[in-house]
Automatic annotation (TrEMBL):
One of the Pfam families matching this protein, by short name: DUF1647
Protein name, as recorded: Uncharacterized protein
Annotated gene: WBGene00111468
């Protein structure tokens, strides 16, 4: 009986330890829930979404620096449809220049620019044009049917959440990229303001630089003269984080001219961009606007504006290149695309399109 007090004290101590462990576990669960970090119940399953990673990871010099909020598991069906989930792998081999498609899109208010864009493409390419109708008039659709080797596609807004229908949110662009990626090995995605010219020999050199690894497989090269940080809404970083010093250092590249060819890196970029486009708080946070107020320094200060899909794809590609050890680009600009493309906003005409096959 003399040992009874000792046993009672020992029992109290054990209960205290157990309660402390339970309390600590609860605190960790609450912390992870609040930060959007998935609970890892199985070390072989790093995501609550059927094993698919749904948190974008920021990298700086090959090191993980931050994780974004979880994208909804309800978006998994889109990833499978577009063949960009982790179940699909792609190895870059080569670019078949003759099979590269040119992907364009327009609503009626930009069709006058689209006429010039299509003529510039047909002046230098015989390659297939895939043109997405974002709201064209019947006579404009008739004109496109007069263009040789042009496939007209009506963008199916009804297949996506209602907010995608708001064109000024630019959600449609990453979706178009994902749709085409599921079908084609290599393609250009260009706005109606883009003009092609003088493609020989510069375009051949451009493709060769991708094949040799000098240029990445998802390439943008038109500089914007400001940083990623300057024109990105801060709330986008909740889903797509990036180190602020890196965002202030890196030049934002225009998303009006992109070359895309299949690789695992490209699949990841397309995936995260599409997930952001299907999440309104990511692509178009509340208060987003395109009109900027730049100060003298266009890199270190925020211009109170947002570049929507251009912001998202710049953040995503920058992080993937940091992860994979690519040499960081700086303000010494690589203008290789400007050897054969230009951007001419507002340049259009009213002459109907008639471009028959030869």
């Amino acid at each position: 009986m003399r040992n009874a007090p000792i046993l009672q004290l020992l029992a109290i101590f054990v209960r205290f330890i157990l309660i402390s462990i339970i309390a600590l576990l609860i605190m960790l669960i609450v912390r992870q829930w609040n930060q959007g970090i998935p609970m890892i119940m199985d070390p072989t399953n790093l995501s609550p979404c059927a094993g698919e990673e749904m948190q974008f990871i920021a990298y700086n010099q090959k090191k993980e620096t931050a994780r974004g909020k979880n994208f909804s598991c309800g978006l998994l069906s889109y990833l499978d449809r577009w063949k960009i989930s982790h179940d699909f792998t792609y190895k870059f081999e080569r670019i078949d220049a003759e099979s590269v498609a040119i992907v364009m899109y327009s609503s009626s208010n930009h069709f006058y620019e689209a006429r010039r864009a299509i003529r510039s493409v047909r002046f230098v390419f015989k390659n297939k044009i895939i043109f997405y109708d974002l709201g064209l008039l019947p006579n404009e659709i008739s004109e496109l049917n007069n263009v040789c080797n042009l496939e007209l596609r009506k963008f199916e807004f009804e297949r996506y959440p209602d907010f995608v229908s708001y064109i000024m949110g630019y959600n449609f662009k990453p979706i178009i990229m994902a749709e085409v990626f599921s079908e084609l090995e290599s393609f250009w995605v260009v706005d109606t303001s883009v003009r092609f010219f003088n493609v020989t020999p510069f375009l051949t050199d451009f493709y060769a630089n991708i094949t040799s690894g000098v240029i990445e497989t998802m390439a943008m090269r038109h500089p914007s003269s400001h940083s990623i940080y300057a024109t990105t809404h801060p709330s986008m970083y909740e889903y797509l984080p990036i180190d602020y010093p890196l965002a202030k250092e890196l030049e934002m590249l225009d998303a009006n001219t992109m070359f895309i060819t299949r690789s695992d890196m490209t699949r990841e970029a397309i995936k995260w961009n599409a997930l952001c486009a299907l999440t309104p708080e990511c692509m178009a946070p509340e208060g987003s606007g395109v009109h900027c107020w730049f100060e003298k320094d266009r890199y270190l200060t925020h211009a109170n504006c947002h570049r929507f899909d251009q912001s998202s794809i710049n953040i995503i590609v920058a992080s993937l290149l940091e992860r994979d050890g690519w040499k960081r680009r700086d303000r010494v600009k690589d203008d290789s695309m400007r050897n054969f493309t230009s951007v001419q906003r507002g340049d259009g005409d009213g002459i109907p399109l008639i471009i028959p096959c030869e």
